[in-house]
Each structure stands twice: as C-alpha cells, then as structure tokens.
Write a structure and sequence with these properties.
The protein is an alpha/beta fold. It has two domains: 125 residues, Rossmann fold (3-Layer(aba) Sandwich), CATH 3.40.50.2300; 88 residues, Winged helix-like DNA-binding domain superfamily/Winged helix DNA-binding domain (Arc Repressor Mutant, subunit A, Orthogonal Bundle). Helices cover 41% and strands 26% of the residues. It is built from eight helices and 14 strands.
C-alpha cells in the first residue's frame, strides 16, 4: 500500500477521492491546510502529493516550492479549477509533475497518479524519515526539521543503518560490524559511543534515537 497526501479544504471532494483510492491500494491522508501538510511532511514522506491550488492559509504553489527544497523527486499533482491557465503555468514553474482540472473524474485522477508514479519511480523509497529527520539516500544528505545537517562519513553511515532498521533494536556489536567492520575499519567499542554522541548533538538530541540499556540502540517514531 502506497501513502498519498491529499491537501484539500473541500471535505466532500477529499472524502470521495480517499474512498476511491483506498480500494486501489493507496493509503490517503487528508490535510485541510498547508501548514498541517507541511508539518506531516517533515515527519514522513509519501509516495505522491495531491495539492489543491486554493487553500485557506495560502496558495498551493508556495507548498510546492517548499517541498522541492528538500524532496526534489517527490511527485506532486496540482488540482486546479478549469480555465486557470496561470495557475497551471505557476504550478509547473514551481515543480509540479502534472495537473488535473476540477471537476474531474476519479478514474482520470487515478490514471494520472499511476502515470506520475511510473515516470518518477517510488520516490518515497529514496527518503528515510523518523520524527523530522530525513535522509535522501540518492544525494547522501540529511535534514532535521527541513534544515540540512552536515555529518561525517561515519556519522552518516551510522544514522543510515539505524534508519534502515527503524523500529528494531540493534546491538552495539551488530552496528560495529555493519558500519565499520564491513568497510575494513576495525575499531574499538568506544568509537561507536563517541560517534553516536556527536550524531545526537548534531541532530539536537532527538527523542527518536533511543538507547536500549546493555543492548544497543533503536530508531523509532515518537509522534
């Protein structure tokens, strides 16, 4: 099942779209303001975003620009009323992948979503996220609540391994083996402690990075 975020303030339209898509293997989360959608995007990256143009707290193109600042490959489909060609041009200029004109047939919207996903691939797999920490695996970049964080190679590999195993407790021995020994870097046990402390400091002591006493560490969502 693929996650889809739908930013739409008309609940009747949103409910119809949600019902239609969820029987077609999508999990649809509806947001009625741009601010709410932005907050959730900081915590989790979906497979696709449906974005209405006119929202109570602003225009959809402002959110599109914000998304493109961190997630360049995340598919975005604008929904706009008929005849608003300026909106369509602005949407593409700010990074939209496609648009659908209201009123629309649900079958048409569904086919556009599938087409965009075929072109872009599953962009959500490119991003790993946990409580506002996001790794872009293609670009080897890390963001914490939309702010890019500079990490050393060891810090990045440690965070990547923890995020790839989110929800699982990893022993210190396993982490040392996978992050360091797999690259031929044989180090002592203190190396992990020091690297993890630096990583926590750079990420502002995230609650989602947990110490499991006498065992190891675990990343898990707390929100």
């Amino acid at each position: 099942m693929r996650d889809l975020y739908y930013i739409e303030d008309d609940w009747d339209i949103a409910s119809s779209v949600k019902e239609y898509l969820e029987v077609r293997n999508f999990k649809v989360t509806i947001f009625t303001t741009l601010a709410e959608a932005k907050q959730y995007l900081k915590e989790h990256v979906p497979a696709c975003v449906l974005l209405d143009w006119n929202m109570p707290d602003g225009r959809g193109d402002s959110l599109c620009r914000w998304i493109r600042g961190s997630w360049k490959e995340l598919p975005i489909i604008f929904l706009t009323v008929r005849g608003d060609s300026a909106d369509i041009v602005s949407g593409f200029r700010n990074g939209a992948d496609d648009y659908v004109v209201k009123p629309f047939e649900l079958e048409i919207l569904y086919s556009r979503i599938l087409a965009v996903l075929r072109r872009t691939g599953n962009a959500a797999e490119q991003y790993l996220s946990c409580d506002g920490i996001v790794i872009d695996q293609n670009r080897h970049t890390v963001f914490c609540h939309s702010e890019e964080i500079s990490l050393s190679a060891a810090e990045y590999q440690l965070l990547l391994y923890l995020m790839q195993n989110k929800g699982r407790t990893l022993t210190r021995e396993k982490i040392l083996e996978q992050v360091w020994d797999a690259n031929g870097n044989y180090v002592n046990n203190n190396t992990l402690t020091v690297t993890l402390k630096r990583l926590r400091d750079k990420l502002s002591q995230p609650a989602c990075l947990k110490t499991v006493r006498s065992v190891g560490y675990r990343m898990e969502d707390t929100i």
